[in-house]
TrEMBL record, chain A:
The lineage of its organism: Eukaryota, Metazoa, Chordata, Craniata, Vertebrata. Keywords: Cytoplasm, Hydrolase, Lipid degradation, Lipid metabolism. It catalyses: 1-O-hexadecyl-2-acetyl-sn-glycero-3-phosphate + H2O = 1-O-hexadecyl-sn-glycero-3-phosphate + acetate + H(+); 1-O-hexadecyl-2-acetyl-sn-glycero-3-phosphocholine + H2O = 1-O-hexadecyl-sn-glycero-3-phosphocholine + acetate + H(+); 1-O-hexadecyl-2-acetyl-sn-glycero-3-phosphoethanolamine + H2O = 1-O-hexadecyl-sn-glycero-3-phosphoethanolamine + acetate + H(+); a 1-O-alkyl-2-acetyl-sn-glycero-3-phosphocholine + H2O = a 1-O-alkyl-sn-glycero-3-phosphocholine + acetate + H(+). Residues 44-177 form the SGNH hydrolase-type esterase domain. One of its GO terms (molecular function) is platelet-activating factor acetyltransferase activity. GO terms for cellular component: cytoplasm. GO terms for biological process: lipid catabolic process. This is Platelet-activating factor acetylhydrolase IB subunit alpha2. It is found in: Cytoplasm. The keyword Cytoplasm applies. Its main location: cytoplasm. Pfam families: Lipase_GDSL_2.
TrEMBL record, chain B:
This is Platelet-activating factor acetylhydrolase IB subunit alpha1. It holds the Pfam family Lipase_GDSL_2. GO terms for cellular component: cytoplasm. It is an enzyme of class 3 (hydrolase). Its EC number is 3.1.1.47.
Length: 204, 223
């Protein structure tokens, strides 16, 4: 995506504590701490779609066994995820795969801007973690019936489908509504098996 | 507190569709439709803390057997629940108990306003369902460390408890099992974002709630 104008969806921005209980920063701080303690093979990053995965059995059944960390925060936009990744959530870890799912909360931005924001995050990931693969998940449809947000999310996916192949090590996975966990976990297993097992430093 | 100033927390207000996918109204319409079709003995009403109960095993385990319906909507404040109940969600049903859990999303309102909002909901339920009892759940603490919203929620609970003490058709239940540790911290094992409950958090809240509900359902209704 070219142009001299700054894409607002690609500008890192923390979430302001408007309510007064500092929960967003508390979650970010916890994730930064987890980076110090854990050695994940897979890192999940994004909004509530990622965050809530961890509250259901599917996490324990399919993703925990892959040594996965979950850095999802409900309500996050591409700007918020970008800020978190630039401010500690990638420090001290060397995951083999990063799963990125964000964009549905970018209400102020156009589809093209949202896709640009996602691309910027993918570029950050590949530059900070040169050996990692990045899997970008397609945005799901939303709302009970057809509405402008469904069209917008589909347009974002369309941009991603054509832009992501230009990045080395990044791929797009859009399984649609009904069938995400199994294809995703199959893809992750495949990527992890392809990666040579690295000797880890002794765990002390 | 002036009697002339309208209380925004007690003024029925639908949620505006700012995002463009009409989800709030879709949820409301589905609940109105459920009211036409179903015959619940227990109706759960409130915000995301009610809504998300339905997504975990705890619902099928503890509350489905009681013939319960879930009319929770994430993000709702008292004025939104008030609007929903005034606009069809209580029509055509006659539950014995209404479980009400709302207030934590009333940002910008004072504890007094929030309490009045809750009491306005209790009144609407009494008007529409004269034989039902309302069980108001205490607001939980929130945030990882001590903060003004914890104080606000505690104050709301105190005011509501006082307000219902003289009412035969409503009662208050504190469902906080002690989420705040001695350090002042809430664990992410109980609230994954320091507001919403994990399955473990729900277990701790719902078991006593379930026991209390069962004892309410076993007693014959007064009046």
């Amino acid at each position: 995506m070219s142009g001299d104008e700054v894409n607002p969806a690609a500008v890192a921005q923390p979430v302001e504590d408007v309510h007064g209980d500092g929960r967003w920063l508390s979650q970010h701080t916890r994730f930064v701490q987890e980076c110090k303690d854990a050695e994940p093979d897979v890192l999940f990053v994004g909004d509530s779609m990622i965050q809530l995965m961890q509250q259901y059995e599917v996490w324990r059944d399919l993703f925990s066994p892959l040594h996965a960390l979950n850095f999802g925060i409900g309500g996050d936009t591409t700007c918020n995820v970008l800020w978190r990744l630039q401010n500690g959530e990638l420090d001290n870890i060397r995951p083999k795969v990063v799963v990125l799912w964000v964009g549905t909360n970018n209400h102020e931005h156009s589809a093209e801007q949202v896709a640009g924001g996602i691309l910027t995050i993918a570029e950050l990931l590949t530059s900070r973690l040169p050996k990692a693969k990045v899997v970008v998940l397609g945005l799901l449809p939303r709302g009970e019936r057809p509405n402008p947000l469904r069209e917008k999310n589909a347009a974002v996916n369309s941009f991603l489908r054509s832009w992501l192949p230009r990045l080395n090590h990044a791929q797009f996975l859009d399984t649609g509504y009904r069938n995400l966990s199994k294809p995703l976990s199959d893809l992750l297993l495949q990527i992890l098996e392809d990666t040579p097992e690295e000797r880890r430093a002794s765990l002390i | 507190m002036s009697a002339e100033d309208p209380n925004p927390a007690a003024t029925p207000t639908p949620c505006q569709d700012t995002q463009g996918d009409g989800r709030w109204m879709s949820l409301h319409n589905r609940f109105v439709s459920d009211s036409k079709d179903k015959e619940p003995d227990v109706l759960f009403v409130g915000d995301s803390l009610i809504q998300l109960m339905h997504q975990f095993g705890i619902w099928r385990q503890l509350f489905s057997p009681l013939h319960a319906l879930n009319f929770g909507v994430g993000g709702d404040a008292t004025q939104h629940v008030l609007w929903r109940l005034t606009n069809g969600e209580l029509d055509n049903i006659s539950p014995k108990v209404v479980v009400l859990w709302v207030g934590t999303n009333n940002h910008g309102h004072t504890p007094e306003q929030i309490c009045s909002g809750i009491m306005a909901i209790v009144q609407v339920i009494k008007n529409k369902l004269p034989h039902a009892r309302t069980l108001i759940l205490g607001l939980l603490p929130r945030g990882k460390s001590p903060n003004p919203l914890r104080e606000r929620n505690a104050k709301v609970n105190k005011l509501v408890q006082e307000a219902v003490s003289s009412l035969p058709h409503a009662s208050f239940l504190n469902v906080d099992p002690g989420f705040v540790h001695s350090s002042g911290a809430i664990s992410h094992q109980d609230m994954y974002d320091y507001l919403h409950l994990t399955p473990q958090g729900y277990q701790a809240v719902c078991e006593p709630l379930h026991a209390h509900l069962k004892s309410m359902l076993e007693k014959p209704a007064e009046n």
